[in-house]
């Protein structure tokens, strides 16, 4: 009798363990806005829609682009911390208002090209991850770029200095202070509001990536483009730690590997889109966008010098002062990770 009872109990325990190991984990996912274009459409959304199939993980993915949720990009970390969503395609500049450490990934002038941006992401992501885990119950799964953010104007310009007196759309405080330093008037605007604001003359210029601008029709309401990379527009994927811990260690490794592959793919695709969109916007042969006829303003050595000096003299010290108020180790961690690489030891 006892042997039969013990056998039954062991069988029940094994069955229960097996069920628990195969419990379906629901992943409620916020993606990039539809309005941001081809990375969201061609890479990100298909990745999430096929994630269960490609990884074999016991997951159920419900993916929604940000601009279909009613949630603002500045709220993404709060949404993750609350558990309202499990995984979010983080718009780093926007969420840096809640965690200034994040902006250390993409200070104005820090990432003028893809090679620089990748090195910065690799060196500083660990610092950002630790901070997100501590304050927002969020693990950082990877960092990727939209690409160099450049200047579009509905106004004749011949150099960066010609923004003096013009109203320029910006998307974070670091960029705002740099624009102010060269005589422009920074105007914070969400991406979705920029086209109309340019058309109405609410702003004279705006900064974003060439591909996003092309997808959103900015060249319809501008005349000139200065392809000077102010920032790399780094973004990332964050997962709620409670959700992450529902997976076994092997499942976590599988999920992380999938995101590592995704991030590598976006880095490569972003650069392809950047080069192609530059051609599209000025009327040259291109494949991924709509042809327009913007005037391309040559980037001068003076423009590049203004950007380099701006990082050292404006972007870094301004950011460091703000960041150190909420994270006393902020600037020290940044210098330890990046100081040697950028000549600021």
UniProtKB/TrEMBL annotation:
Residues 1-21 form the signal peptide. The keyword Amino-acid biosynthesis does not apply. It holds the Pfam family DctP. The keyword Transport applies. Keywords: Signal, Transport. It comes from the Bacteria. Belongs to the bacterial solute-binding protein 7 family. This is TRAP transporter substrate-binding protein. It comes from Halomonas kalidii.
